[in-house]
Structures are given as structure tokens and as C-alpha cells.
Write a structure and sequence with these properties.
44% helix, 14 strands, 7-stranded parallel β-sheet, alpha/beta, Rossmann fold
Length: 425
């Protein structure tokens, strides 16, 4: 009890800073408008009268990961209401694309009064947390309301595990609240067990990110975009880049242009509020740059194509020969992004050395020699040109990647079975 009180006091002190970062206006960032009150538990009631399954996905990455699960749950029971919460407005923007399939609310801050207000308004029958978004007061209130809590697609890197060890007494408050933890890998399960989660609560279901269903529409859009960009030129994409990474990517592109003067870089910053500044950076460095939103035609002289839209990553990756996955050259803070999206499209992948968010997946791919790890801009350039200058290597890798992802599908089915066993189905 004392630990919870201390935690809540510290959260109260830190919340002004956290909220400032959340609400701060940035270019291309969707605004919360009057809905900011939802963060404090002033949650509008749902349209549905039946109790919903509540899925929490903090931001963009988790929201995208949740979409296959949402669609699978609705397919098995179209009448079952689903409530999705996000903390960020960019995450909400992704969920909005599902239309009437779900209802969206903003996640209340981790204060007991805010969570109680949310639960009173929404009355969920089950809570599914995507990956590892564990808040002590939220889990405590949900558990007290007799609502089962399942962590879906759970991952816990060695770095995160060590961080939790430092606040073990606080993590101990979470453990009794969790009904099941559906882990991506055996290593994730071992780390949760090391932190004290009972073995009978831990299940290895695989990563639902392997169950990426890429529609024919998206594939066709990728092909159509490639036609616009040009088939007779090398095209590579730097996907989900972070601040400090764009400079390295552009430096790599300069080196690629030396040997392949007609090469094109598709540059996609991770956060929409950075679209304008990255465009300015490209121009400042002298690159002939076209923004996707400008509708300007790409010509042979175009050197950088800025992907300044949301929700089109698969289309953009599908138009490229090779993908550099961002968040991996930005120091040790980010830990990389989803390398399985380009893999599912059969697009060869280069990643930087910081990929702890996908450590197990990258380790497996490295063992099978289907991913390249580059430590700096020079190595990125070498890896990219090794594919764009060798058509046979490109074709062989595409085949290997598609085989790799297809044989690992099935996590979604296992996850649905475990979820159903807890909601009475």
C-alpha cells in the first residue's frame, strides 16, 4: 500500500511534464481538442449496450499491431463490441481508420479516480493490453472490478527486464492483477518469470506481427507507386526514422548516388510532426526532394521521395527494392521498429545495431542470414548497393523472406484461443 502511495505521489509530480509532452502542438500532429478530458476519466459512454472487449494500444505501433487481432475478434463474433484506447492522438488516428468496427476512447492517466471514471462509463468485460503497457493503478482498479487482464503479444527485452528489476517492489503490485501473459518468445516468458510472474500465467503464442495480412489492394498500390517512381532505377526506403538518424540515412544516400546516380530514397520519418523539418533537411543538403502529399510528379532527377503520410508504410515499402528499418541507428533509446513488415512483403532488410525491441526476431533472421546489420552510414550504403546492384541476390532474398514469414504464421490463432478461454467462449 505504501509503495502505491509513493508511486502515485511521484506520478502526480511528474504528470505536468508528461501532459505537456502529450498535448504540445506540433506540425502534422492530430489535436486532442475537447477530448483531452478523457485522460482524466471524463469518458463518454459507449454506443453499444453489451459489455465490450477493451483493447489498449498506447500509440501508432501498438495500434497497427492490434488491427489483425481486432479484425479476427470481429470476424468470429460481429456483434461483440470492441473498445480501443490509445494514449496518443497519432494512435487514435490509426484506430479511426477501422471506422465503425470499434469505438475509440483515450486512455485515462494512471490515477485511481481517472480509471474509475473510465470503467464506470465503459463497463468492459475483458482487458487486452498490446505488448507491455503496464500501469500499477490502472491494473489494480481493473482487477478490483473483476475484469480479466491479458497481456497480448507481450515482449520484454533484457534491457526492460533489468529496468523493472530496479523497481521490483512496484512490479510486484502488478503481478496479482495479471490473468495471462501471452509472450512472443520463450525468452520473453523467461524474463517475465524472472520478475516473479507465475509460470501458469505465462504462455508462448508467438508474435501476432508475423500474421501480417497484406491485402491485394496494398500490394497493388505498392506496384502502382513503383511504376510512378520508375522501374529502371534502384529504389530503397528508410522506414520510421528518428531524429539524428535522417542525417545518417542521407549521408548513405550520397554514397549510393556515387555508384548509382539514378537511385531514389523513400524517406519516411516515424513521427508526423517531423515531416516539415526533414523536408527542410533534405533541401538544405541539396537533394532534389518531392513530398508525397505535394502530388508533384517524380522524375529521373528526383533523389528523395518524402513519405509524409500516415498509414501507408506497407505501400511505400512495397514500392522499394530494399528497406532500411529506422529506430536502429538512433542510439540505444529506441530499439528499432518492425522488421517483419518488409519481410512479409519480401523486401530485403537492413537494420542498425540497436534493435532490442525485436531482439529475438533479428537474432533468428541473422542466424538464417536474411537480414543485414549496418553500424553506420557507410555500412548502410554498402548493404543497400549489394542488393540494388545484384538482381539475382535481390530475387533470392525475396524468396527466402517470404518463406520465413509464411512458416511462422499462426500466432493470431493461438492468441484468439487464449483470449476466448478467458471471456467465456
Amino acid at each position: 500500500m505504501l509503495i502505491r502511495i509513493i508511486y502515485t505521489l511521484l506520478l502526480a509530480l511528474a504528470s505536468p511534464i508528461l501532459l505537456f509532452g502529450l498535448y504540445k502542438s506540433k506540425p502534422n500532429k492530430p489535436k486532442f481538442g475537447k477530448r483531452w478530458k478523457e485522460h482524466f476519466g471524463f469518458t463518454p459512454k459507449l454506443k453499444a449496450t453489451e459489455r465490450p472487449i477493451w483493447i489498449h494500444a498506447i500509440s501508432v505501433g501498438e495500434s497497427i499491431a492490434a488491427i489483425p487481432l481486432i479484425k479476427a475478434l470481429k470476424k468470429q463474433d460481429p456483434a461483440q463490441p470492441i473498445l480501443v484506447t490509445t494514449t496518443t492522438s497519432t494512435g487514435a488516428e490509426q484506430i479511426a481508420k477501422l471506422g465503425d468496427l470499434v469505438e475509440h476512447r483515450y486512455m485515462p492517466i494512471d490515477f485511481a479516480f481517472a480509471v474509475k471514471g473510465f470503467l464506470k462509463a465503459t463497463q468492459p468485460k475483458q482487458m487486452l493490453i498490446i505488448e507491455t503497457e503496464l500501469w500499477p493503478n490502472t491494473l489494480n482498479e481493473v482487477h478490483k472490478a473483476d475484469i480479466p487482464i491479458i497481456v497480448v503479444n507481450a515482449r520484454l527485452s533484457e534491457k526492460s527486464c533489468n529496468n523493472y528489476v530496479k523497481v521490483q517492489p512496484l512490479f510486484n503490485l502488478l503481478i496479482p492483477c495479471l490473468d495471462k501473459v501471452l509472450c512472443q518468445t520463450e525468452s520473453d516468458a523467461e524474463r517475465f518469470e524472472r520478475l516473479g510472474v507465475e509460470k501458469n500465467k505465462l504462455f508462448v503464442t508467438g508474435s501476432i506481427k508475423f500474421d501480417i495480412q497484406i491485402s491485394e489492394e496494398v500490394k497493388e498500390k505498392g506496384k502502382a507507386l513503383r511504376t510512378e517512381l520508375g522501374h529502371n532505377r534502384p529504389v530503397w526506403i528508410a522506414a520510421s526514422t528518428h531524429k539524428g538518424e535522417d542525417e545518417q540515412v542521407l549521408e548513405a544516400h550520397k554514397q549510393i548516388l556515387e555508384s548509382q546516380p539514378n537511385a531514389l530514397l523513400i524517406l519516411v520519418p516515424r513521427h508526423p510532426e517531423r515531416f516539415d523539418s526533414v523536408f527542410e533537411l533534405c533541401q538544405k543538403q541539396g537533394f532534389n526532394t518531392v513530398r508525397r502529399t505535394s502530388q508533384t510528379a517524380v522524375t529521373e532527377s528526383t533523389q528523395v521521395y518524402l513519405g509524409d503520410t500516415m498509414g501507408e508504410m506497407l505501400t511505400l515499402i512495397g514500392a522499394a527494392d530494399v528497406c532500411f528499418m529506422g529506430g536502429s541507428l538512433a542510439g540505444d533509446k529506441v530499439g528499432g521498429h518492425n522488421v517483419l513488415e518488409p519481410a512479409a512483403l519480401g523486401v530485403p532488410i537492413v537494420t542498425g545495431p540497436s534493435y532490442f525491441n525485436f531482439e529475438e526476431i533479428v537474432a533468428t533472421m541473422t542466424k538464417e542470414e536474411i537480414i543485414d546489420i549496418a553500424h553506420n552510414d557507410q555500412e548502410v550504403a554498402v548493404c543497400i548497393t549489394s542488393y540494388t546492384s545484384n538482381p539475382k541476390k535481390l530475387v533470392d532474398m525475396r524468396s527466402k523472406l517470404k518463406a520465413f514469414t509464411s512458416k511462422r504464421c499462426g500466432a493470431l490463432t493461438s492468441t484468439i484461443q487464449k483470449v476466448n478461454s478467458d471471456n467465456g467462449k
